[in-house]
Design a protein that fits this description.
This protein has about 425 residues and is an all-alpha fold. The protein has helices spanning about 5-25, 30-35, 45-55, 60-65, 65-70, 70-85, 90-110, 115-140, 145-160, 170-185, 190-200, 210-230, 230-245, 250-265, 275-280, 285-295, 295-305, 310-315, 315-320, 325-340, 350-360, 370-380, and strands at about 350, 385-390, 395. Strands 1-3-2 form a three-stranded antiparallel sheet. A hairpin with a 4-residue loop joins strand 2 (about 385-390) and strand 3. Helix 16 packs antiparallel against helix 17. It is elongated and about 100 Å long.
Amino acid sequence: MAYLSMGEAHRRINDYLNRFCDAVSNQDGDLLKRLLSLSSNNPSILSLADALNVFQDANRLIKQNDNYAQFGEILVHLFRAFQSFRVGSFVDSYQAFEKAANAFIQEFRNWDTAWALQALYVMVYEIRVLAERADKELATNGKSPEKLKGAGSFLMKVFGVLAGKGPKRVGALYVTCQLFKVYFKLGTVHLCRSVIRSIETARIFDFEEFPTRDKVTYMYYTGRLEVFNENFPAADDKLSYALKHCNPRKEANIRMILKYLIPVKLSIGIIPTDWLLQKYNLVEYSNVVQALRRGDLRLLRHALQEHEDRFLRSGVYLVLEKLELQVYQRLLKKIYIIQKQKDPSKAHQLKLEVIVKALKWLEMDIDVDEVECIMAILIYKSLVKGYFAHKSKVVVLSKQDPFPKLNGKPVNS
């Protein structure tokens, strides 16, 4: 930090205080949100923090001026948050910022219109980001990370403020999305349910009136929840909505959506193109897709093993593991096609020993009894139409459509 005189520090602080009061009196939401944005390393905020660390009596300036004093509860704690952030003390910064945010909420309640909604969004965002940084600091110092949990409680309070009637309610979805990020980070996704119920069942909310950005984020997170619940048709609807309405220039966001949408599509029998996987750098799915196309169980298991950590972190490992049944179906179909070329009259009779040989060629050590069990499951799951002749160890396929397509329905249905 370059040398800063006391006079220059005093000027910077007064300038900020004047701009803050002007923003409120003129209902200038754009200016106000810039004055609150901390974690983006806003140069003007950082220069103010430097001034506050030089001029230690800013609280007196606030109290002595009636214009400033009416927002004293916000400004005093906000200044402390800026100072602490500047020196890298994120726990102190979070605690001070939360107090400023609580005071801001009290003012926001009294404003009749939604002019300060963008500023509120900044407060909500900063609370979450500062809480994450504070928890990292606490964990580094061997203390229990607890600030993100506290941020979740604060965001629920904000949601309550926005959930009533009037123009402010359009902000409820933004806060909901920030809550989702907190709950997913903490591993407490079950807490999302009550907020989802409020959004999807309350008459005061018309989903289409919310900003597109917030609707996309909401559908992304609720789609992920449906993946965890293995409700694939609902997951497909929500994630497809998010993909369709996502800004095409936001390739990182599209990739995040596809990371969950692709396993969902695979589970209902829809295979993505290689071009899509390459364009959005989702090559971890390449061998999974190839395994489905070829009916190659070995390749599928190799792909799951190779990217196990990534799939587990995403929560899609179990979804992909269940693709084994589809792979078996594709393998059987290939055997059927080969037999049909050799002897069309016996193509619909698949001997178990032939299937065992095909699996051994793929280096899969599975005996006749295991194959018999797999065939029974495939027939039960409607992936294969036919019946099993136990004595002769033969699967007798239906002569009409022996390998039904999923047509967008999950295997378990």
